[in-house]
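Cross-posting from the chemistry board since nobody answered there.

I work mostly on the small-molecule side, so proteins are not my area. We synthesized zinc ion and want a rough idea of how it might sit in this target. Sequence and SMILES are below. Is it possible to get a predicted 3D structure of the two together?
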Amino acid sequence: MSEEKACRNCGMILSHGNVCPICGSKDLTNKWNSYVVILNFEKSAIAQKLNININSTFAIDVK
Ligand SMILES: [Zn+2]
């Protein structure tokens, strides 16, 4: 089972830790249906749509 957790607030997927480094939320879950990988947030339409300003992996459809 994966140790990864996703922030319910912003969707950031954390490979470790219990606090989201982006929004500081501790409301994490290990259940999500899919995720997006943002490689270049400045040019990504998805990143803009999701209001993401960091290159990382983000869960979408978080449970
Ligand atoms: Zn967050």
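Reply from a structural biologist on the board:
Welcome over. Reading the output above for you: The first helix runs from residue 45 to 49. Helices lie at 45-49. Happy to explain the token format if needed.
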